From TrEMBL, chains A, B:
Protein name, as recorded: TetR/AcrR family transcriptional regulator
PROSITE patterns: HTH_TETR_2
Entry keyword annotation includes Transcription: yes
Tagged with keyword Cytoplasm: no
Pfam families in the record: TetR_C_43 (PF21597), TetR_N (PF00440)
Alphabetized GO MF terms: DNA-binding transcription factor activity; transcription cis-regulatory region binding
SUPFAM superfamilies reported for this sequence: Homeodomain-like, Tetracyclin repressor-like, C-terminal domain
Domain of life, per lineage: Bacteria
DNA-binding region per UniProt: 35-54
Cross-referenced Gene3D superfamilies: Tetracycline Repressor, domain 2
UniProt source species: Antribacter soli
Keyword vocabulary terms for this entry: DNA-binding, Transcription, Transcription regulation
Length: 199, 199
DNA sequence: TAAAATATGGAGATTATCTCCATTTGTCAA
DNA sequence: TTGACAAATGGAGATAATCTCCATATTTTA
């Protein structure tokens, strides 16, 4: 991914410091209350260094988000390996909501990245989307989930949940409701009628 | 709603000019490429006037969005009056996607307002939510839609679709997919089993 | 260990946002 | 009408955020 240039020792150190500071601020929910330059001070580096490593606020958020997404992608892989496809998908989606609820950082970041024009969500978003795509594909393959809807739709819903985080007082309940709707909507074929309920 | 003070003639004129300019820019998709002060120039008023009428960029977007939402709410009312509840809901949601596709202004604005922290979506959002709430309530009442999921969930999904507008190359197809999923998820009761399908 | 390559900090340039008030415009009562 | 009062205006400049630049410092390499 970033094997371009090996990055000098002090550079890596500073980058880490910046990321650590940003993560803290992000978790505290103050990400937008700070001047961008302040992240430099917080990390004990100069503003030049800040800008060299992360040209924009969004880039910084993206970088923090990256690790978080890696964790979630791993989780998706685990679930895929240990549960029936449909349950894995359900568990993953519910887990996303839990995660956003617990550390609002991710939710907020999703919102930020989405709000930013520019094709953000670059890396992290793609990794997440891939993970979701795999989960859905599994479930389609074993016939528990309809085949006529793209995983992209699921991503869009996830984005919506994240973006709404700070704006809806009853977020948690609504988010759970959305996942329920989504899972029920995904189940079985698009055709109406009725087949013996499996569960 | 805003019967507080009658607003002087020139004030109303300037406000309209500002709104007109903003609408144009919004429709062209340049809303974020402009300095906020530039809206004043575009409307032929001073910056002071701009700030007096719309203290922030978001307030301006909200005001433009307001009329658009009024139109949509009217549409919801019409549909409610002329179609069976479930069809009305479906038609409305599909119509929202059409609308966002045709004039990206609404989609973009939804995204903006959502991105803004502060309890934005103040008026317009509430009106829209009410319209959706009524549509859902009707459908619940006549038994075609499950009763265990709040209309807020539908709003969240709508927000997600709007927010994703600029970020997903295949937006239209995914948005349609989301609506399909949503409608199927909403149909009938949460409990499994099976009741004679009405349609 | 010295030269080359890389990275640093932070002072200021640049750009965007917002405030203030002397002046203009509109309203209303007489 | 008109005069007096209130409401609104515009835009110069204060304030604040973002970003650039480069003389200096650190790391790597040979």
């Amino acid at each position: 991914m970033n094997a371009a240039k090996p990055l000098r020792a002090d550079a890596r150190r500073n980058r880490e410091a910046l990321l650590a500071a940003a993560r803290e601020v992000l978790d505290a929910g103050d990400f937008f209350d700070l001047r961008f330059d302040d992240f430099a001070g917080l990390a004990g580096v100069g503003t030049g260094t800040l800008y060299r490593h992360f040209p924009t606020r969004e880039a910084l958020a993206e970088a923090v988000y990256h690790e978080e997404v890696a964790t979630l992608s791993d989780r998706a892989r685990d679930l895929r390996a240990t549960l029936p496809a449909e349950e894995a998908l359900a568990a993953f989606l519910r887990g996303m909501v839990d995660h956003m609820d617990a550390y609002q950082g991710l939710a907020r970041t999703l919102a930020t990245l989405m709000a930013t024009r520019s094709g953000a969500l670059a890396d992290g978003g793609q990794a997440l989307e891939e993970a979701v795509g795999d989960l859905v594909a599994d479930a389609v393959r074993d016939g528990t989930v309809r085949a006529d809807v793209d995983a992209g739709a699921v991503m869009m819903v996830l984005h919506g949940i994240g973006a709404a985080h700070d704006h809806r007082p009853d977020w948690r309940a609504e988010a759970d409701g959305v996942i329920t709707l989504l899972l029920d909507g995904l189940r079985r074929q698009p055709s109406p009628k009725c087949i013996e309920g499996t569960a």
